[in-house]
Amino acid sequence: MQASKIRFSRYIRPLSYLVDLFIINWFSYFFIHQNIFFHLCISLAWVVIAVNTDFYEIYRFTKPYKIVVKIIKQYVLFIFVNLIFVGLLEENIGVKRLLTYISIAFVVVLAVKFFIHYFLKFFRIYYGGNYRNVVIIGDRTDKLADFFTRNPDFGYVITKRYTKEAAKQNNYVDLFSYLKNGAVNEIYISIASFTDKDIYRISKFADNNLIKVKLLIDRKSVFTRNLVKDFYNDIPIVSLRVFPLDDVNNRIIKRVFDVVFSTLVIIFLLSWLIPILALLIKLESRGPVFFTQKRNGLNYKEFCCIKFRSMYVNKVSDTNQVSRGDRRITRIGAVLRKTSLDELPQFFNVFIGDMSVVGPRPHMVNQTKEFALSIDKFMIRHFIKPGITGFAQISGCRGEVETKRDILKRVRYDIYYSENWSILFDVKIIIKTVLNAVKGEEKAY
């Protein structure tokens, strides 16, 4: 297993949102209206329209004409929305003045968008930044390799190529060894070269090592599986495993929800609850009020998970998980764990971005290393942020991992959540978590 290569490209789209919102509001301020309500309305409208038109779904392989098509759609819909808002304000601004404002703003937005698009191409060619290390596996892959070689502006660097025979050599040992130690971001598999069983084996290894899998399909074949297909010029590429949170709009929605929810909890609950619980914890035993522990989060990155201390200070708290009747647990700690109040400080983790309100529960570092080696697809959980609660926890998979079956069920639920995320799904999990905490759970100890 390996930590994914850190890239800063994930920040490009959020930054694009902010820049575009600044542009339309700046021109609106001078051309149309200085009413704060109007600015809030057009900002919200811009985001909603952009989400529905995929305005920010621009990739390194997106062709320029598609960018122009996207901005025309955004332009037309934004004009319509502005006309509505201006009408609501009941002011005679004039259609000509409105069109002038929107047109100038959109010319600037288009210029900025193309600048970013071509700047990144320049950056990849001349500075070698914003690139992805890829491995191509299988026969009849010369066209894809040639495409990557002739288009360095796309930022794909071929670090290794394997023919069908070379990949299968030594029962995939050489291939898996390179994937594990070669800082690989993506692998491209020619499905014409391998059986479903072979592809499943390679993709399972990639999943467990945080490497994304894409399939190079034969144009003559009929591919009926519900997968996401892109085109690199005229080369069809299929992504084998796609998560809703790979979409930047979904990540923004989830992050905004996390910030708002955690802020409310910190202000209205933890602000007065922390002093009370701190006093009770201190009165019963010596030691800090909070217990911090290294856990693995997004892309296998370690972070400090914060909890109320529920045990006497001991030397094995970072290696030995809590079990039923554990003598290390204090009396107030037993209450905190039974009601899940010990988890509340993790809302600070959510606020700073290490965790989400809902997601796969993070494990101790030594447990993560153990499970990553022994449990298939365990590492898929690290494609998204860990959570305070999760689908596995409301489905009876919380608390101590007593058997291998326990962790297998947990991983299955976590993968289902990762592949079927929605904000309504998060709300449902939160409500069920609160209800479970009120009525109590068998494995809450």
TrEMBL record:
It is found in: Membrane. It holds the Pfam family Bac_transf. Coiled coil: none annotated. Its main location: membrane. It comes from the Bacteria. The chain crosses the membrane at residues 12-31, 37-59, 71-89, 101-120, 259-281. Keywords: Membrane, Transferase, Transmembrane, Transmembrane helix. It is a multi-pass membrane protein. Belongs to the bacterial sugar transferase family. This is Exopolysaccharide biosynthesis polyprenyl glycosylphosphotransferase. It comes from Flavobacterium agricola.
